[in-house]
Structure to design on (769 residues):
């Protein structure tokens, strides 16, 4: 019923793609559709209008009109403009020599600040830093408990001040200031201050966050915004930026059918970079924000770069070589297969991964891709003896029955897996011959699995 | 309008007015500016109207529909003045917003058709489900009803603690388990307790979930199904909580939640910001779901029964 932005742009561009050339008439029609698609994606009214005007102007001015492939040129034009609008380049977190580095997190209620704080701590810890979290949301019931629970999962400390009555002391500025002192004392190199959600029109609360800023002089102020936000996104971002002079924006809940038009709007209105995109509730579901990748995603071009990077995180060079030699020697067994499955699972949700592959994103949009897709395969392999895993050929009828019982599945399921494994090996053999060496092999295996 | 008859209502009206202050200045302010001093509706006015509606998150589809109706009316009547246009838009919007029924009364004093009357509260992450439950519990309690809460958000860290604090504030009882417990079991136990404790109203909290997480949506459907086994017909209401700042994605939320748990009413929260919430107009119309309550702040009293007439009245006052 509702098309995604890329679907809509696709449909809108058919007008142009179909015809050999762009003229005043067909471009006006197309731009109206593009504008509507942007509005449906919650791009700010004014931003959408400016965007379409600019694209239209450039399309008419440039050689696009008479170019060889105007349709593609037009898509390129829109893509370039989108990348530009999204900030052009990826911007890293600010770093300073002063220790600890202080990161202040601010935003509206329910935008996902506390969860993001946990994710950022995870990310920084993974990069070898040792953050301290400051629980400066002293208002929302149980907010401190939530942060503590997350911090426990990450394995980082939380600084809180408990009042005489056992509840958090209602002094966010003090929490922030003392947390920084605590970090200095205990040798923590980063302090992440989680603040209470506040409305940008709440003067008292805005004054509080400004007071926190003045007290701790953060190196980085991140404004957290829900990617599902509508037209109001520009108002809130502008208000927070006016008061705090933010350094960056974090886009949360950017998974699934969130069209993320707010990203376009905010970037172009406050002119501050979007630094992170957060996509899920697991602590490792945080990625750095890359404008070109986001634009590709919006246009349905997939995000192959993120995919490869995610794969690389899980597969180190040495492992890849080992795997490659196994493939070449044809000794890749179910044991290895199982290990690979575990790696892929670590890369994130299947749907997110598939969505990053060009051309696949659209196809899986409405599909129910379950993250437990591998559960049955795992159960079957786990029900095998080590010997069977290393040499699947010995699995005869009675072994199959035993394995099926062990996995709580039917014999047919076991048969199917064994058959697929055989086919996969055959395919890998071909691919190994074709590609010779390098990471291709590795990815080839991955794709084979993903497509199951 | 009898809105100013009683102290409470008067106060509510004030709050609503305050809450809608921003909406009015951004939304209808634009419309009245758009038509100010003009005798006829020309294209420029309709363009401004389009901008006003779209920037209030009404959405392109509903905006086009409203404008089309207005154009038709103008074509028919040939002449439309500023005040007439104002009235016309008011009518159009009021017509799109569905009213509540006696089966699921919004008024806290109204007699409830079931005992216990079970209300399940659902929505995506961070829209204000738990806070809304706290406020609704408080209002039912004030109306003399015995309220029981079920801490069905067993997923988010400290969600149960948050609801527990609300239960203490409102002075109502709560049934809870531990983080990670089966939410269906919590709902089942809560309803069992509601029967033995003779509760009038049961409010079941659920974990926030994005509407495209099919597994989690199915879990929600299961939580709902389980209740019927304990109290036939339960839950009698399923409230979908929507954040007023959410854009067009709210339509998808309404679509998915309606499909899985058959939503019966909407709660529109955070209307005290640069409030728009224009998205509910299209949702209420398209899915035939009334808006029941609006949230206008973080305090216990900052929840109001959505009054369509008062809402539109306040918008144009």
């Amino acid at each position: 019923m509702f098309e995604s932005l890329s679907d809509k742009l696709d449909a809108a561009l058919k007008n142009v793609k179909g015809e050999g050339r762009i003229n005043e008439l067909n471009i006006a029609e197309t731009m109206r559709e593009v504008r509507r698609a942007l509005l449906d994606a919650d791009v700010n009214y004014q931003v959408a209008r400016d965007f379409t005007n600019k694209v239209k102007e450039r399309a008419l001015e440039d050689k696009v009109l008479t170019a060889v492939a105007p349709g593609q040129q037009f898509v390129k034009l829109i893509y370039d403009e989108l990348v530009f609008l999204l900030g052009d380049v990826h911007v890293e977190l600010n770093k300073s020599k002063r220790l600890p580095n202080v990161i202040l997190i601010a935003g509206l209620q329910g935008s996902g600040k506390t969860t993001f704080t946990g994710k950022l701590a995870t990310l920084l810890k993974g990069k070898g830093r040792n953050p301290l979290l400051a629980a400066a949301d002293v208002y929302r019931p149980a907010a401190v408990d939530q942060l503590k629970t997350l911090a426990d999962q990450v394995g980082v400390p939380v600084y809180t001040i408990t009042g005489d009555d056992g509840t958090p002391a209602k002094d966010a500025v003090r929490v922030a200031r003392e947390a920084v002192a605590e970090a200095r004392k205990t040798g923590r190199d980063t302090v992440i201050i989680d603040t209470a959600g506040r409305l940008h029109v709440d003067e008292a609360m805005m004054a509080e966050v400004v007071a926190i800023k003045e007290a701790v002089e953060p190196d980085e102020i991140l404004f957290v915004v829900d990617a599902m936000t509508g037209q109001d996104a520009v108002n809130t971002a502008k208000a927070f930026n006016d008061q705090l002079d933010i350094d960056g924006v974090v886009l949360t809940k950017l998974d699934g059918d969130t069209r993320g038009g707010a990203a376009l709007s905010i970037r172009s209105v406050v002119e501050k970079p979007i630094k992170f995109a957060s996509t899920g509730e697991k602590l490792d579901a945080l990625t750095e924000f890359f404008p070109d990748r986001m634009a590709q995603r919006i246009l349905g071009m997939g995000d192959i770069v993120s995919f490869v990077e995610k794969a690389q995180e899980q597969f180190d060079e040495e492992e890849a070589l080992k795997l490659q030699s196994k493939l070449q020697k044809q000794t890749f067994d179910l044991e290895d297969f199982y290990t690979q499955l575990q790696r892929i699972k670590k890369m994130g949700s299947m749907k997110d991964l598939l969505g990053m592959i060009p051309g696949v994103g659209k196809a899986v949009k409405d599909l129910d891709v379950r993250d437990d897709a591998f559960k049955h395969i795992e159960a079957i392999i786990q029900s095998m003896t080590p010997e069977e895993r290393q040499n699947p050929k010995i699995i005869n009828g009675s072994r199959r029955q035993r394995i099926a019982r062990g996995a709580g599945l039917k014999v047919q399921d076991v048969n199917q897996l064994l058959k697929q494994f055989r086919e996969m090996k055959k395919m890998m053999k071909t691919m190994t011959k074709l590609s010779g060496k390098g990471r291709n092999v590795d990815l080839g295996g991955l794709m084979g699995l993903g497509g199951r | 309008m009898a809105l100013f008859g009683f102290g409470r209502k008067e106060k509510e009206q004030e709050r609503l007015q305050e809450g809608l202050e921003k909406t009015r200045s951004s939304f209808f302010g634009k419309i009245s500016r758009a038509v100010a001093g003009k005798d006829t509706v020309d294209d420029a006015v309709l363009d401004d109207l389009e901008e006003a509606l779209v920037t209030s998150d009404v959405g392109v589809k509903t905006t086009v529909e409203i404008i089309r109706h207005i154009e038709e009316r103008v074509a028919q009547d040939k002449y439309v003045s500023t005040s007439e246009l104002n009235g016309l838009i008011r009518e159009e919007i009021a017509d799109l917003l569905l009213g509540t029924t006696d089966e699921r009364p919004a008024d806290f004093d109204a007699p409830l058709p079931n005992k216990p009357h079970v209300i399940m509260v659902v929505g995506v992450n961070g829209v204000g489900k738990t806070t809304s439950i706290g406020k609704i519990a408080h209002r039912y309690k004030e109306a003399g009803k015995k309220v029981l809460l079920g801490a069905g958000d067993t997923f988010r860290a400290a969600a149960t603690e948050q609801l527990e604090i609300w239960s203490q504030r409102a002075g109502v009882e709560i049934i809870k388990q531990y983080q990670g417990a089966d939410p269906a079991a919590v709902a089942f136990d809560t309803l069992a307790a509601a029967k033995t404790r003779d509760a009038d109203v049961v409010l079941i909290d659920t974990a926030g979930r994005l509407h495209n997480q099919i597994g989690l949506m199915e879990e929600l459907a299961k939580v709902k199904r389980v209740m019927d086994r304990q109290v036939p017909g339960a839950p009698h209401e399923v409230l979908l909580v929507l954040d007023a700042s959410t854009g067009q994605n709210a339509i998808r939320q309404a679509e998915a939640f309606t499909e899985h748990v058959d939503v019966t009413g909407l709660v529109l929260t955070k209307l005290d910001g640069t409030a728009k919430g224009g998205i509910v107009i299209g949702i209420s119309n398209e899915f035939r779901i009334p808006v029941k309550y609006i949230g206008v702040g973080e305090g216990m009293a900052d929840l109001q029964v959505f009054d369509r007439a008062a809402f539109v009245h306040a918008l144009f006052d």
Summary: Residues 21-96 of chain B form a domain with the Four Helix Bundle (Hemerythrin (Met), subunit A) fold (CATH 1.20.120.140). The longest helix of chain B spans residues 7-35. Residues 249 and 279 of chain B are 9 Å apart (CA to CA).
